[in-house]
Amino acid sequence: MALATVNPTTAATETIIEPHTPEEVEQRIAAAAAAASTLRSTTFAQRAGWMNAAADILDDQAEGLGELITVEMGKPIAQSVAEVRKSARAMRFYAEHAEGFLAGEPLEDPSTVGASRAWTRYEPLGPVLAVMPWNYPLWQVIRFAAPALMAGNTGLLKHASNVPQAAMFLDTLFERAGFPAGAFRTLLIGSADVAAVIEDPRVTAVTLTGSEPAGRSVAGTAGRSVKKAVLELGGSDPFIVLPSADLAAAAETAVRARTSNNGQSCIAGKRFIVHTDVYDAFVADFTARMSRLVVGNPLLPETEVGPLATRAGRDELAELVDDARDRGATVLTGGFVPEGDGFFYAPTVVADIPDDARLVLEEAFGPVASVYRANDNADALRIANQTRFGLSSSVWTTDPDEEAWFTANLDAGAVFLNGMTVSHPELPFGGIKDSGYGRELAADGIREFCNLKTVWKA
């Protein structure tokens, strides 16, 4: 089946790209395997030069690439350009730090293991398959590709089917910058073809950012093939507001946390858990700010919230809100599909949500915020930890004891204090529970797809 760019602002089909044939897929896997032998023998300095050159390409084409991203998945143009710039920064970060992150570590006293010397070293694994989503068409891929290539691995990309133009740009990016031919290749294939690629003996590992069902499928296939997997899955992140917080700053940040990327982010604040002492004041301010957001064409600079990426995603989000409303929840603002073309949904705040509503249990992937009243800190923690997800979290308080208590007890891969969750190249990123396992970014991310080899010398 052909892959298409369907503009979510207009619902019009912009581009149709034919998938790769089985023969083309085979050629691309073979090229990645051949390049792996070449790349592992290059120096960090050589790879850094190529990686910086690839970053230069992104910076030079940031405006055009930003427009491509917006047309393919609908985020406001300023956010698309920022995504390109962030990707370039991550590439430069790994170009500078990869050698240090992968430096061998000597055992301080090798005589304890009967050796004259003993040490560890990190070595690349080979071709790694990346199954990536559409919500950050460049950033999600680059945060895998930059560390993987700097470690000496090669990459195979199975991108989301609704961003084929971004996928094909990435197909040639690294070779244009000087990396060996085949060092990074896009596979235009369907989801049903992923298992065969994972099972291919030349493919050494797999990473996936996507839905929980997709993660379970990929993990199962990788497990049967005894191959390393890293999974970054869904999130239903708590945003906890306590009485000592700066409420105005919290409300302002809450709007950005919920609507950035049109609300389509795994690490977005989705469940706003507010202590009863400040609930009314915070929710009133938050709701007012959400209701004032400018919704429209994401190519216009004044637009703050664009369309959802797909019609199916928009319809699923509407069903979650309708289900909550039917069960007795209160919609404070939004809660409807605007008239006109495109896959838009009004910025929405929902309160008084019953425990059996789907909105409590499932990830809302769009500009819909759930608010909860917490009786005290223990109740706030209970609500925060009640989902099966554990990606990230945000806590707003000026009390050091509260900061320490929530940091220690939240079931999440990260805790952001008085700020919204953002991924940074300098910090490890990933979740627990049904949000996945393994880490991306920082030193931990580059080491995920390396063989940590122990060396002992008599």
> Compute the gyration radius: what is it?
23 Å
How do the strands of the widest beta sheet line up side by side?
12-13-14-11-10-16-17
CATH fold annotation of the largest domain: Aldehyde Dehydrogenase, Chain A, domain 1
Annotated CATH architecture of the largest domain:
3-Layer(aba) Sandwich
Would you state the CATH class of the largest domain? Alpha Beta
Write structural notes for this entry.
With 458 residues, this protein is α/β, with parallel strands linked by helices. The protein has two domains: 3-233 and 435-457, Aldehyde Dehydrogenase, Chain A, domain 1 (3-Layer(aba) Sandwich); 237-424, Aldehyde Dehydrogenase, Chain A, domain 2 (3-Layer(aba) Sandwich). It has helices at residues 22-39, 44-60, 62-73, 77-101, 139-150, 164-176, 194-199, 212-224, 247-259, 276-291, 311-326, 358-361, 377-385, 400-409, 442-447, and strands spanning 3-6, 13-17, 105-106, 117-124, 127-131, 154-158, 184-186, 205-209, 228-232, 237-241, 269-275, 330-333, 348-351, 368-374, 389-390, 394-396, 416-417, 432-433, 436-437, 450-457. It has a seven-stranded mixed β-sheet with strand order 12-13-14-11-10-16-17, with helices on both faces. β13, α12 (358-361) and β14 form a beta-alpha-beta unit. α2 (44-60) runs antiparallel to α4 (77-101), α3 packs across α4 (77-101) and α9 crosses α10. It is globular, with a radius of gyration of 23 Å. The model has no long low-confidence stretch (mean pLDDT 98).
